[in-house]
């Protein structure tokens, strides 16, 4: 197990599910379309080669439809943009399976690179909102559907994979600073209840081995925490579904240095991430607990971690990777 950083993961989730992020797909697709159109004009005979007008037409149609899908997304409806992204993901495969020898090798590489960049943005966006979409079924809202049976595994970005495996695709160039984030314990939503706020959520007991959740106000029920119970030799996870209380993760108003995966994450043996109240502090430094928004304080190794909110449930203290005072 590795140390996880709430601000890092929350910022990645907020970025990849945002309007600005998916808008980059249109920019890349426009570049690819312009690139292809210019090359086709140089080789007019290729206009009659079926894959070129077919996939070129799909690209043009997607560009025409993007702004409408974005306007609907701005109102909170992800459906049209998810459909747009899904349709876009077929294009690189379509060209890859056709004959591109009419292009020079450098042009082939440049064209496919633009399409694959667009594809990557669509994949990341789709994964970030996939679980929100799954839990929006009317059957789950009225209790006639059993999501325990229907969704036994995390079908989005599981565990800490958003930082470990997706960071480089979301931020090809890492930002110098990001907002600091913290759970808003004044707002709660338990598994199965209608989500009251759109954004990123964290289980009240901390991240553990579960992913943060992107959830949408009024259109879905809150999911359980998908704790990773084990991982097989092929890298596939087995999950333990945990019904729990969630809190929204919001910016504190303070900026912090970007805690990149390589510079922050260490083995759990070197430094424990979580400690229950009543247990001795495993490492001297700054800690906080979701049980209280003003809980951040410095402890000495061996000092008993206190209960700060008796009515909250188990008070879990978490190591703050920002150890500045």
Secondary structure: elements and pairs:
Elements: H1 6-16, H2 19-42, H3 51-74, H4 79-88, H5 91-96, H6 105-134, H7 138-141, H8 147-150, H9 161-164, H10 167-170, E1 177-183, E2 189-190, E3 199-203, E4 213-215, E5 225-231, E6 237-242, E7 245-257, H11 261-264, E8 274-276, E9 285-288, E10 297-299, E11 316-319
Antiparallel strand pairs: 1-7, 2-7, 3-4, 3-7, 5-6, 8-11, 9-10, 9-11
Description:
This protein has 325 residues and is an alpha+beta fold. It has helices at residues 6-16, 19-42, 51-74, 79-88, 91-96, 105-134, 138-141, 147-150, 161-164, 167-170, 261-264; strands at 177-183, 189-190, 199-203, 213-215, 225-231, 237-242, 245-257, 274-276, 285-288, 297-299, 316-319. It contains 11 helices and 11 strands. The model is unreliable at 262-271 (pLDDT under 50). It starts with 5 loop residues before the first helix and ends in a 6-residue tail after the last strand. Among the domains are: 14-134; 266-325, no CATH class. Strands 1, 2, 3, 4 and 7 form a 5-stranded antiparallel sheet that branches. Strands 8-11-9-10 form a 4-stranded antiparallel sheet, with no helix packed on it.
């Amino acid at each position: 197990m590795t140390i996880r950083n709430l601000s890092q993961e929350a910022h990645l989730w907020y970025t990849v599910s945002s309007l600005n992020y998916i808008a980059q797909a249109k920019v890349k697709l426009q570049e690819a379309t312009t690139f292809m159109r210019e090359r086709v004009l140089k080789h007019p005979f290729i206009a009659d080669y079926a894959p070129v007008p077919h996939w070129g037409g799909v690209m043009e149609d997607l560009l025409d439809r993007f702004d409408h899908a974005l306007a609907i997304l701005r109102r909170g409806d992800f459906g049209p943009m998810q459909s747009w992204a899904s349709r876009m993901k077929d294009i690189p495969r379509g060209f890859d399976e056709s004959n591109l020898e009419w292009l020079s090798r450098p042009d082939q590489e440049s064209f496919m690179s633009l399409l694959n960049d667009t594809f990557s943005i669509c994949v990341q966006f789709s994964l970030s909102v996939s679980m929100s979409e799954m839990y929006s079924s009317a059957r789950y809202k009225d209790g006639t559907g059993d999501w325990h049976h229907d969704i036994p595994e995390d079908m989005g970005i599981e565990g800490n994979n958003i930082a470990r495996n997706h960071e480089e695709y979301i931020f090809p160039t890492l930002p110098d600073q990001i907002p600091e984030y913290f759970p808003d314990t004044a707002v709660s939503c338990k598994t199965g209840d209608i989500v009251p706020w759109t954004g990123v959520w964290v289980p009240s007991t901390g991240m553990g081995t579960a992913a943060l959740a992107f959830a949408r106000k009024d259109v879905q029920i809150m999911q359980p925490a998908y704790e990773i119970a084990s991982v097989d030799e092929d890298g596939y996870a087995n999950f333990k579904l945990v019904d729990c209380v969630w809190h929204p993760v919001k910016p504190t108003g303070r900026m912090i240095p970007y805690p990149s995966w390589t510079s922050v994450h260490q083995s759990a043996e070197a430094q424990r991430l979580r400690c229950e109240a009543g247990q001795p502090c495993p490492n001297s430094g700054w800690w906080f607990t979701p049980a209280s928004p003003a809980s951040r304080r410095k402890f000495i190794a061996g000092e008993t971690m206190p209960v700060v909110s008796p009515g909250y449930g188990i008070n879990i203290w978490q190591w703050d990777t920002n150890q500045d005072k």
